[in-house]
Amino acid sequence: MSLATLEAATASGVISADQRDRLLAMEAGPASGETEQSDEENLRLIGGGNDLFVTVGTVLLTAGFYFVLNTILAGRPLLIAAALGLFAWIVAEVVTRQHRMKLSSTVLALLFAASGTVLLVLAVQAGLGIRMPDSLWALIAMRGPVSQAGYLVLGGVILAAALYFWRFRVPILAGVVAIAATLLAFLQTALMLYDGVTSGTVAPPSLQDGPELVRAALYMPLVCGLLIFATAVALDLHDRERRTIWSDCAFWLHVVSAPMLVHPLFIMATGQDIAFGRIEPGTDATVMLTLLIIGFVYVALAIDRRSLLVPTLAYFGTLGIYYLVHSAANTTGIPPFALILLVVGSLVILFGAGWQRIRRLIIGSTLPTSVLSKLPPFRIPPFRT
């Protein structure tokens, strides 16, 4: 049975999307150490030209509907947000539920998440009577309403995204849930610190303690990033062949977790001055920066995820490599920015052109077979003349 037939059967409701994915997995046969598949990271983000065409129509329809609402319901943003959320759900019943158009489904899911967030913010703000404080004492007195508002808004976003995902199975919502959960963890940490300061169990920080306080606060995104990354890896290991929707969810979780891991680790390893945005490029910082780059590259190769490596190279390329090549720029007269572009561009092309061969060479020769059997298989691209 062809893939087109399976997609048509899914769109008409003869089989479910999960059954389609399981049939494709059965057709592929048992996973082996090597598979003659494409070298591409299988991300089902766009379904073809018709999907792109429908996405343009979805954007135009949404814009027109918004302007109509803005005219009819002028000055009533809560009703506008509710109407946009309902609009996204209704259109998704056709575009996503029936025709499984991937890119337009992603746009509709983001529209629903944004509308739901605005709706929750406006409803909670009106319900709790929260207003902008006009003094420090007024801000301190808002601890109770602010905490309730944060829990209601972020918890509501998570529940709404989970409900939409249960209905339509759009992978990008995994990233939305991860971001909302991270903000919820930040809120809880800030409230605990606030309660400690007001009760006297925690000494209030002085102005001189500002950089160290911000540095200590980096542990929160680092912990959240590790949890999100671990969840993404678990989904990758669950779907080694990357044929189901869970591998797409893992992709978005990697996209969310990568900056949360890279930024705190870079600052902790190199001793960057947060307050003034600079680092001291000593020997220890250079060694630690090099080890970090190697570590992230190795992990990305092991789990076969370019999505983890792209923000890593972007971050290290714009911040870290600048200091590594700065001395060369001083002697040659070449602008440091040009050297940064050369280094990062070379790495991107190198890994993009030979990703699977580099992965097999490094990972295949350094990890035991028992570990390799649990990782995504090596995908050797077919020879092209």
Question: How would you sum up this structure in a few lines?
Answer:
Keywords: Membrane, Transmembrane, Transmembrane helix. By secondary structure, the protein is mainly α. The protein contains 15 helices and 2 strands.
Description:
The protein is an all-alpha fold and 385 residues long. The protein has a domain at 46-131 and 140-169. The chain has 15 helices and two strands. A two-stranded parallel ribbon has the order 1-2. Helix 8 (173-199) crosses helix 11 (245-270). The longest helix has 31 residues, at 336-366. The chain is globular, with a radius of gyration of 24 Å. The model is unreliable at 29-39 and 274-281 (pLDDT under 50).
Q: What proportion strand?
A: under 5%
Taking the sheet with the most strands, its summary is: 2 strands, parallel
What does the overall shape look like?
globular
Low-confidence stretches: 29-39, 274-281
| Terminus-to-terminus distance | 30 Å
- Counting DSSP H or I runs of 4 or more residues, the number of helices is 15
| Helix-strand string | HHEHHHHHHHHHHHHHE
Compute the number of strand runs: 2
Kindly report the average pLDDT value: 77
User: What percentage of residues falls in helices of 4 or more residues?
Assistant: over 70%
Spatially, the strands of the biggest sheet line up as 1-2
Protein name: DUF2157 domain-containing protein
Keywords: Membrane, Transmembrane, Transmembrane helix
Organism: Tianweitania aestuarii
